[in-house]
Amino acid sequence: MLKLKFEDKKARVGIFETRSGKIETPFFMPVATSLNVRLISPKDLDNLNVKAVISNALLLYLRPGLEMVDKFKGIHKLMNFDKIIFTDSGGFQMISEDLLIEINEKKAKFKDPYSGRVVEMNPEKNMEIQERLGSDVAMCLDYMPRYKDSLETIKKSVKLTYEWGKRCKEAHKDNKQKLFFDGYSIGGLAIGESRNELKLAVDSAVKYLPKDKIRYLMGVGSIPEILENIGKGVDCFDSCYATRHARHAVAFTSNGEIRLEKAKHREDFNPIEKNCECEICKNYSRAYIHYLIKIHDYSWKRLVSMHNIKFIQNLLEKAKTEIKENNFEKFKKNYLVRFSGLNSQS
Q: What digits encode the pLDDT tens for the residues 317-330?
């Protein structure tokens, strides 16, 4: 359940409660697929004010394995992260032709990417895995079709996901762990669709979702898409967009994305973002990060990754303030005009 506190047209602020604490919506989760956000430690996440991450139950089952997790009494202690952890079921891996071997009403067969062995997965086994992992929020095992799959395949995926969802609910026993019947995820997007197709998909889904349930748009993390979808009533996001782009020298600013390896930054002694209070902007210049890039000292990837995550955190705090003051639409419009005003990745 989501306790709504403020509404500004469709945008909203609420409280989502889990056994590891409460979190104010809308919020963003960095992707910690294998209990690690690339280049960023759990302590860094605390310093960046990250209150939730998402990991992958299937991949954690394969490595480090449930016996290791059991020794630590759950993934929170293994990771040393006491905030909220979501676990995805592994349904997303079905999009990979390299991993998915076979799927039917009873189960799916995957190839273990680490050992090459065949692994069988069904809803009951998946719920057991996620309960033993001890995540705060577990996602149902689903069948995620590929972008531009046939209509027949889409129909099959919807039917199978519905049936598997019922089996997940029946098999789920840990009443302190939220199974995502406590909310609604909009998934299978951000895998090749145009921005207009993404917009149409979200619009089609959100209007049918109950107001008292958290709405989670999976895999979406660009600044314009986050703001646009907050305006549609989405409460929760996850994506590797911020960190993946950071590792390609793309940094977020309120005037758009910039590419720090470009020569124009060689003697740019400004921080990545003026008036940003993140530790990176308070301590390092664009020129210094540009220099690290040119001498192939890969510490710059960590610095830019941390800035980009903190940038999103700051943006969401500002968005929540604007929703509370009934000013979100004006804020969103002005912000997006400024964000797109700078040539992208300049």
A: 999 999 999 999 99
Contact of 247 with 305, CB cutoff 8 Å: yes
Q: Distance of CA 332 to CAs 311, 321, 328, Å?
A: 16, 12, 6
Which residue bears the tokens 């301590």?
283
Number of Cβ within a 10 Å radius of residue 156:
17
Local confidence band at 63 (pLDDT 50, 70, 90 cut-offs) = very high
Residues with a catalytic annotation lie at 88, 238
Q: How far apart are the C-alpha atoms of 52 and 45, rounded to whole Å?
A: 9
Classify residue 285 by burial, with Cβ atoms within 10 Å: 0-12, 13-18, 19+. middle
Backbone angles phi, psi at 17, to 5 degrees: -110, 135
- Cα separations (Å) of 260 from 49, 135, 158, 304? 25, 37, 43, 9
271 prior amide bond cis, ω within 30: no
CA atoms of 268 and 247, how far apart (whole Å): 20
62's enclosing H/E stretch is: helix 57-62
Percentage of the chain lying above the pLDDT 90 cut:
81
Residue 45 contacts residue 338 (beta carbons within 8 Å): no
Q: DSSP for 120-132?
A: EE-HHHHHHHHHH
Is this structure's pTM higher than 0.90? yes
The DSSP letter of residue 5 is E
Tokens of 133: 């992992």
pLDDT in tens, 201-259: 899 999 999 999 999 999 999 999 999 999 999 999 999 999 999 999 999 999 999 99
pLDDT digits (tens, 9 = 90+) for 122-173: 999 999 999 999 999 999 999 887 777 889 988 998 999 999 999 999 999 9
Residue 146 per-residue DSSP state: P
